[in-house]
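Pipeline run #58 for the internal structure catalog. This entry was flagged by the ingest filter as a single-chain record with no existing model, so it goes straight to prediction. Upstream metadata was stripped on purpose; only the residue string is passed forward. Reviewer on rotation: M.T. Logging verbosity set to normal.
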Amino acid sequence: MAGALLAGFAARADQEIFADNFQNGWFVQPWAATALTNSPLSPNDGALVMAVNCGPFEALDLRAPAFDASPYANLIFWLHGGAAGGQSLSVQALLNGIPQAAFPLPELLPNVWTNFVIPLAALGASNSPALNGFYIYNFNDAAAPTFFVADVSLQARPGVVRPSFVAGASRSDGQVGFSLAGAPGQKFVLQTSTNLANWQPVSTNTFGSAPFPFVVAPSSPRQFYRATTAP
């Protein structure tokens, strides 16, 4: 009889964009001159930060393949004004490569790291199905003194209830029955894998007031299942 194992259930987490290096498919699109450096020291004990030299009307152009932004609430990053400070910068979100309205930042202070937390709603990107980048833009007709960028991430929305396994048992017909529980109205995706590396969707459903039952027929002696929240 084929067996089945329920794997751990996945909840939404923050998405790292840059922390010592680029992560999760993010990269710099060539525009403003950008280099990795270990000076000034990262605000959170990291090894490397980005040094950015923006000419007139140039930007640090952060890109990724388009993805669903609905699980995320805020864009978080640190900026350092270097020895000069005084940079007047703005942030723009890119939806399918199209810049949204600019969000102006206060002038950077010299020799100080400043933490910015910007709601995606303020960038016109909340719940977008096609977020694929951000500009940190010098909207001025003069070059900006070198500034530094560290620890860029997308912060997950609070209060996401993690789907949980309620009960499960093998059946005499070789199938496996189990139930999942979650917040009423929350969508979730049941996924399966034979190796814990490659996952395929089984079905997408919405939790009600009672646990959601499943009966599945494993196609392998070792079949794994997990659930993740869906937008």
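catalog note: The CA atoms of residues 181 and 211 lie 5 Å apart.
catalog note: The radius of gyration is 22 Å.
status: ready for reviewer M.T.
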